[in-house]
Design goal:
2 copies of one chain form a homodimer. Helix content of chain A is 24%, strand content 25%. By secondary structure, chain A is an alpha+beta fold. Chains A and B meet through helix 2 of A and helix 2 of B. Chains A, B: Belongs to the D-glutamate cyclase family.
Chain lengths: 297, 297
């Protein structure tokens, strides 16, 4: 996550997109353009995109839809899907085929190419791009309140788990489950953490579960058995305390949020026919929207 | 459900609200004002209403928020909370204290008065009314397609169950579960039923589970052990087939939708402090919004 020494870190959404387009930035976008919203990307054939939009409308906590292509095939102009986002402020001059630092390609729901720099040759006239909120926003707010997530302190990826919580079905997207990200906090901090992240309704919002009973309720029985990201750590960098018994000394509990990996999981589960494009994990599309714009008053 | 013989059935939202206000209509609103949207009602103290609005935003399938009081204490003017609903079309001249045929009163989350005709003396200057979508809309669409729900055919209340699906928490509303309504269909009809109800995203939309495995997945193990409404029937009026084995002859399976009882359950679960007002089940607020206005294109 350390910035390259020889290039400047882009400070705005536009600078970030141009750096990705010009191939001067090909690494994760964590820490780029502070205060600007970063987005998860899914590009789908238009029929699947229509169902996927309904999937987002029905499951806004893991899949908070921000904007979509103005029409099928359009990689330059986007329309807002969130009341807090105005069409003008999404991303001026964007080319969604080049403006994420890295992309993944799926064919019929199977990952076939990984971490490529542009998708101009994969783009189809029937493709619709969807931009979905990302938890970097509320992580900045937690840090500002002195509650920096442990994985950020230790420059690790956040830990992610599949749960037993069903996504509400939408057309071809049936049988999906919520994916959650997990951050360890002291039990005494949980209510503050909830309050700080609550206004970020368009970027996953407040936690959906917390504590050891809460963990088991959503079908997670071992924090060490994570599905994506890095192994979890505590604020002091030690491995997490794995059980209720062991946690009594430190007072730490796991706290779980809806996670932007859910959309890509849904695509794999649905075996969506044709070519689907996603950003490579961590390599987000940076928008012109500011975090303060989407805060619920 | 049979209309009174001596009074006319109101044919518009306005007529329905005036009939409730004038005490000429005190029965369930099923069948009233065909084509007009009917709404579930929850009135909360403003602090709880703020959390509840986030609960709806995070759980739109069981809790699709349509509109709310323009400001705390306002029982006459409403503002839209759904992009498909314009402020002007919500409910002209409404008085939410009198315009539902019957109300229930909760104190600190406990039901204390049932089926009263008006709530003028219970209304407080800090109260906020929230109007939430109702499944009557998609039931009309199913009937128009020759798939009238069995309980409608036999003039019974729909059967409702609590599930194991957690509501995404919001402020004081923690630990709630989805309530679902259930309608029996032949397995061969399920995809049509899904397609017909899918566009009704602001009134619970398409089913969230179906079939015998789907039933067990959401924590229901006996269709006879329902939590609200009447015992389930088949289209021919016979009691439902209770098991996968017995269903093989008839080919019937249970189909489950998010249900507007969920909000009242959430209030009881949260033991919301102070006075909360709900409509009496089945005694909805009829709006000026037409069903066609909220259909997703």
């Amino acid at each position: 996550m350390a910035p390259a020494r020889t290039i400047e870190i882009p400070q705005t959404g536009l600078e970030s997109r141009l750096a990705a387009r010009n191939l001067t930035w090909d690494r994760p976008t964590c820490g780029m353009a502070p205060g600007y919203l970063q987005a998860n990307l899914i590009v789908l054939p238009s029929k699947a995109a229509k169902d996927f939009e309904i999937l987002c409308a029905r499951n806004p906590v893991p899949c908070p839809l921000l904007a979509k292509s103005a029409s099928p095939g359009d990689f330059n102009s986007f329309v807002s899907c969130a009341s807090a986002v105005s069409n003008e402020k999404i991303a001026a001059g964007i080319d969604i085929r080049t403006d994420a630092p890295r992309y993944n390609i799926y064919r019929d729901g199977v990952l076939v190419e990984e971490s490529i720099a542009s998708v101009e040759k994969h783009w189809q006239s029937d493709h619709v791009a969807l931009l979905i909120g990302c938890s970097y926003s509320f992580e900045n707010a937690l840090a500002a309140a002195g509650l920096t997530p442990p994985h950020v302190l230790h420059e690790r990826n956040v830990t992610m788990y599949t749960t037993n919580i069903p996504l509400c079905a939408a057309g071809g997207f049936v049988g999906g489950k919520y994916v959650v990200s997990m951050r360890m906090y002291r039990a005494s901090e949980v209510e503050r953490v909830r309050d700080i992240t609550r206004p970020y309704v368009t970027t996953h919002g407040e936690p959906i579960a917390w504590g050891w009973d809460g963990m088991r309720d959503i079908g997670i029985h071992d924090l060490g058995a994570f599905d994506w990201g890095d192994a979890p750590v505590l604020a002091d960098g030690k491995p997490v305390i794995q059980s209720e018994e062991e946690s009594k000394d430190g007072g730490y509990v796991p706290v779980f949020w809806g996670c932007g990996v859910t959309p890509q999981e849904a695509v794999m589960k649905a075996k969506t026919p044709g070519i689907v494009i996603g950003h490579a994990p961590g390599h987000m599309v940076v928008l012109d929207v500011k975090e303060e714009d989407v805060l619920r008053k």
